[in-house]
Amino acid sequence: MPKPFLLLGAINTFLCIALGAFGAHGLKSVLTDDMQTIFHTGLQYHLYHSFGLLIIGLLLIHYAKSRLIELSGWLMLLGIILFSFNLYMLSLTEIRAFGIITPFGGFSYIVSWVVLAIALWKVNPSVD
User: Fold this and answer.
1) Is 93 exposed, middle or buried (0-12, 13-18, 19+ CB in 10 A)?
2) What residue ranges do the domains of the chain occupy?
3) Residue 27 and residue 83 in contact, taking contact as beta carbons nearer than 8 Å
4) CB neighbours of residue 7 within 10 Å
């Protein structure tokens, strides 16, 4: 099932570029320095994991039967939603309550890479 992850990776990379331009030009005079830093952190991790989704899609072309690689991709997407999008909302609204959810996204990011490492350790390239 590589196509959904390739598509999600491409869409999220586009979103990162668009949000980065918006942040650099449209929000520079609106956000405080602290909020700009928070926005940038969300953007930075969003971009890393957008590329991660593309990698997952490419891996699934070769290891189509690996449910762990697929799970890793879904955890990356969950991390984008819970971490990066919460940081965007926090920086735009300055409502600190959004920060409560953010660590769950960070944990999702971490677990996604651990699951990917386990998946790659377990796959047998001659069979899968």
Assistant:
1) exposed
2) 2-122
3) no
4) 13
